[in-house]
Amino acid sequence: VDFSLPSTQKRLFVLDMQKQQLLFHTYVAHGMKSGKLFAKVFSNKPESNCSSLGFYRTADTYQGKHGYSLNLEGLERGINDKAADRAIVVHGADYVSEATIREQGFLGRSWGCPALPAKLTKPIIEKIKNGSCLFIYARQKQYSKKSRLLA
Asked: What's the rounded Cα separation, in Å, for the pair 72 and 66?
């Protein structure tokens, strides 16, 4: 996920590293308190409604209030390690659509989850569930300095 791009651009990239192929390239929402058009504010705090940067491991799937969803394990202490406590998951949302962009000038926003277009949720989750690496990026010096995985 490349949050250095505005939400009006496709900024989720699903790559098959073995085949060196781009499998999906689509829209993804950021947290409502992270910003409107751009995600600029990030937090690991519960109830912050912000996105969190960094490396995640995808886990198991479940049926929840947003339908088919994917649990995430935040791998960076102090940066995204509270993802499970915050219920930060991959899920689909109707507000992740070109229609929403046309209506309000930016993509709808989540409570911090990387939310996907409803129609692509199942195929993307099926491809990345159970142990894939998910990296959420933004140009932020604080993250670069704090991350032990980028060192």
From this structure: 15
End-to-end alpha carbon distance in the chain: 20
Please determine, for residue 151, whether its predicted confidence score (pLDDT) is greater than 80.
Answer: no
What DSSP assignment string belongs to 71-84?
Answer: EEEE-STTTTTTTT
- pLDDT exceeds 80 at position 101: yes
pTM score of the predicted model: 0.95
| Beta-bridge partners for 51 | 42
Q: What is the DSSP string of 4-68?
A: TS-TTS--EEEEETTTTEEEEEE----BTTT-SSS---B--STT---B--EEEEEEEEEEETTEE
Distance CA 83, CA 113 (A): 9
Residue 31, CA distances (Å) to 20, 60, 151 in order: 30, 22, 26
58-67 pLDDT, tens per residue?
999 999 999 9
- CA-to-CA distance for 23 and 64, rounded, in angstroms? 25
How confident is the model at residue 150, as a pLDDT?
84
